[in-house]
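Weekly sync notes, structure subgroup
Attendees: PM, AL, DS (notes)

Item 1: joint prediction request from the bench team. They want all two components modeled as one assembly rather than separately. Inputs as received:
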Amino acid sequence: MSIGTLSFSHLTTGQQIAIKYYLVAVVLFAAQILFGLLAGLQYLMPEFLYNTLDFSVNRMVHVNAMIVWMLYGFMGAIFWLVEEEAGVELVGAKLANLGFWVLTAAVTVVVLVYLFIQTGPGDMESLWFINEGREYIEAPRWADIGIVICLLIFFYNISATFMKGKWSGISGVLVMDLVAVAGLYLAGMFYTTNVSVDQYWWWWVIHMWVEATWEVLVGCIMAWGLIQTLGASRKIVTTWLYIEVAMMLGSGILGLGHHYFWIGTPEYWLSIGGFFSALEPVPLVAMVVHAVYDSGKHGFKNTNHPAMAWLIAHAFGNFFGAGVFGFMHTLPQINLYTHGSQWSSSHGHLAFFGAYATMNIAMFYIGVQKWRGNVYMSADLPGKGWKWKWALTLLCLGVTMMTMALLVSGYEQAFVERALGGASWAAYFKAQQTDWYVQGMFWRQLWGYVTAAGLVLLIWDLLTIGKNETRPIVVLDKD
Amino acid sequence: METLPWWASEDAWRKIAIWVTALMTVVLIVLTYDSLNAITAGGESGRVKAYSVINNRIYYTYDKDRGFPVPVIGDQAPLFGKVLNEEEAQALIDKGKITTQAKNCMGCHTFLGNGAYYAPDLTKAWLDPGWGSEAIREEMMLKFLQDPTTNARGYGSNRKMPNLGITEEEARGIVAYLKWMSSIDTNGFPRNFPVISQEGDR
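Output from the run, pasted for the record:
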């Protein structure tokens, strides 16, 4: 097959599976944005779809589609790099394909049930078959079990491939991390009457995923991405990865304590959670330094400009979204007033986008490049690469401005509802109706549309970039 | 490359990463053991009350040492006029807890501050002054939960809770769950909550 055309013959077995994961990830990304827009609109027009497709449903699909597309992106990225990293062909390809189809079928059924059945009566069957009603991990119990089985198959594929081939620093960290990702999910798979115990373990899943193990996972993908696109030295990249793991887990594991301030758990968590979570931004600074240093050292000469740009966006987005915006309300003295307000959603938007969406998009571009037969994707693309540049601009700007708008609403809510009103129902609704709160919500919606436009452009670009390209990929001088 | 100082060596950082992770994990496990003991319902620490607390009035009094109001269990004031033993109380609260999950209340509300932000926090909903008075509170909560469209409580906003088909039995469970939750010691969250006036206020 000639270059410039999409063909599976350009790809290894693992990479063919990766592309399937990427395709579903993009569909779910679109679903995330769509349902986010619907939910955002309901803040401004509460009658919109009332009693038909209520906020709770839209918000659940918005958040769940996000988590699942990110997982799909990560799994795809790992399938993408495993063979090159191990130096052998993927072990258990048939099983891996089966795992993909089973997982995708399960996700489809879960989403359809969310949309068309929505809620059930107050008994255990509802939690097993409709939704579990616990934010982020609403997936019903049958699906939880299915997810764990698929993750086990995935883990087998990856670890067996490395065992057959060779290990590296990156793959060692990656495989250890996958054990933790799968194991932690189990902490969310039980029911208890006691809401404090319920939330205690619930945070083991949520926090330990997004503020610890997922960060390590993207650290591994970043390390591999820098070697791939820049030709960075493996030794330096690996050393940085270890430094990041030490700092990330050194701060992030006990940083879990910032979720234990107000759920009934003892007061010592105020000090432990406050102290360790305040350290959580440190490794993210290290990642920025590391990415910028490596890029600069190579004079930004790289094999894939869009991917490189998204990797840099990741470094900064992770630092600002997860680091700065997380730190901003992590101390208990501030969190007492901001916990469970739009401050949290402000932080959430920039953090998930900055830390994870960006990394997945970078990997999509690396994927598309090889899917077209390792085409040229550096400077001087047709039309000066306006599509990827505008997609990057609109997405980054859209999400950043949504974050700022939500922060304005969050400030208003924290002052009026919490500080002045003590969080009664009357105070809640008073804050929701203040001018600045409403304006924040209005601008959030507007920038949501900009984000959506960026996504449309991104998809268009991913489908067309490198089409009919005749130049081959840039050859790098290795360190 | 042999002249690298120790702090730039790959090997040193690998070892540091492993030891730091192991140490933090061990500390977390020890703290988890302690915390789970402290949040057992009806446990010695008193942070999470026994389920039968719904037989009594729940007050908040200012604790000078801790610097915020803390929950205090008052005289008997049985929920729906019926005194329950610990098992019966747990069964009723359990019904409420399962219902809050099955109806995905967290898709709009927060419990203990966790969930979504489209509707008020429910941590102390039982004690909210918005229910008017102690005498009509239970009735109002039951009515609201079973038909939130008609009995909307949006305080001038157009925001209304959707009709989720909550039955009377489920509504009673939810009210019990909220009453029990309002007695959890949350280290003063939410700050300065204005508790409804109750008989024997102190």
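Discussion: DSSP finds four helices and four strands in chain B.
Action: AL to compare against the crosslinking data before next sync.
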